[in-house]
Design a protein that fits this description.
Helices cover 28% and strands 16% of the residues. It has 569 residues and is α/β, with parallel strands linked by helices. The chain has 3 domains: 324 residues, Glycosidases (TIM Barrel); 34 residues; 76 residues, Sandwich (Immunoglobulin-like), CATH 2.60.40.
Amino acid sequence: MQKKWWHGKTAYQIYPKSFRDTTGSGVGDLRGVIQKLDYLKELGIDIIWLSPCYPSPMADQGYDISDYYAIDPRFGTMEDMETLIAEAKKREMYVLMDLVVNHCSDEHEWFQKALQEPDGKYAKYFYFEDAVDGHAPNNWRSYFGGSVWEPVPGTDKYYLHLFHKKQPDLNWENRELRQKLYQMMRWWLDKGLAGFRIDAIINIKKALPFAKYNYPADRDDGLVAVTRMLKDAVGIGDFLSEMRDQVFKPYDAFTVGEVFNIKESELEHFIGDNGYFSTMFDFRETTFGESPKGWYDSHHITPEEFKRCCYASQRLARHTGFLSNIIENHDEPRGVSRYIPAQDLSETSKKLLSTVSFMLRGLPWIYQGQELGMENLPFASIDEVDDVNTLDEYKVARDAGLSETEALTAVSFFSRDNARTPFQWDDSGSAGFTAGTPWLRVNPNYTRINAKEQKSRKDSLFSYYKALIALRKHPAYADTIVYGAFEPFMEDNENLMAFFRKGDGQTLLVLANYRKESRTLTLPSPYRNVLLNNLGSLVSESDTHVTLKGYQAVVLELAQLQHTEDGQS
């Protein structure tokens, strides 16, 4: 694998609307991000990804872009963005923006022109399709529920939207459209962006012609999940390699793809040495247990299942490239609430989860508030929910016969609003996020979980994340942690996450006791040093026998050990 400038970095996602408000509007802004750059630098962050801050009617919280060349006034000005890029550069930090090019907003100039002339040039920037026997071209269900087809007013045509109806899909089959998008990407890179997080990109290739791909319904609504068509959509590599060659390569841009539903055999095409992207997020854990019926029927992942997912992804990418490892993001619930049994939720168990995530091979990402252990939001009513996806899943659950209380409980666990609550800076009003009324209510636990309190405490989760990042950059261990092989150890021990990170002449062993009961382990060789420990001490009868307390996690440097790829000594 070719070594790249970003391999040893740590990345951080900012959801600007909920990060820091400097105007009292109740909405976070770019000036708020600028104010907190030193906080991120203290934590050890190198790369910042900003969720969309382009002009948008906010049908899907900014992922419906009405102008790719501007900043939404809610978030500030283009001058603010330029200042942010410059101030980050002073701190040797890199800024990414969201690249949302599967779709735009129905208020974008291109779509408005398409509506004015449904058979004209701009209609070909989208998918305007004739009705088939008086109805929609096929029976695909959008990611947010309902048909992917919306009537074009005053015509017998429909337009395609795989997401919200205010997010019409862009027609990547149109070369002129693609060149317009590449021009826009280069414009942002010329402003000093380091690259992009690339949204929903697997969807840019459709199964065509649409009428051919009617599938058996998978719910009583007569529709089928749009993900079904991705199996028949052939040729996405043509688009992605063109984008790589015309935009990303000339700028040595860092790109991280939001990629679902690819064949495992295609991984090298996506993140190999000549991959379409620098890296892509590992979503194996977040998608585990999904049900075609909806969230209400989804299985909640267990610690052992979480381990199996992590190990499967590590094995898949071991000879290919770097995956991006996440615990949570803006589209997921809070990871500590998802991956730790509710009765065991504590700073100790949260530290275990962070240890595992950071010590896996790949690029570690922190979502804002993760470093504090921010948790899911308790919902008292569906009226408190803002997220369009959660509202749809609530309706699905009610239609399936669940009571209001049952449906709310089912969707609350997975709701995207859990991660979108305002950042908890301190224990003052609105958690120090705003002097006004926050756009989404603050999690009531902000009085005990907040940055001010944790920064003042050496044994806090914030301090532990600092130590994790520092260890990953430590000159004595960085090469092993970044590039070393991943090899499982004692894999059949239930609720034990144990694995080697092996480099040239160096072996580290990560041990994470993913349960509340203690356990004693025999090490394959003596340990030289305890590099990290989420509890104050490590009980050891000798340098080859250790006892881990409940949810204890340690990183050990071992004496030299020879072992095989399956972890057997």
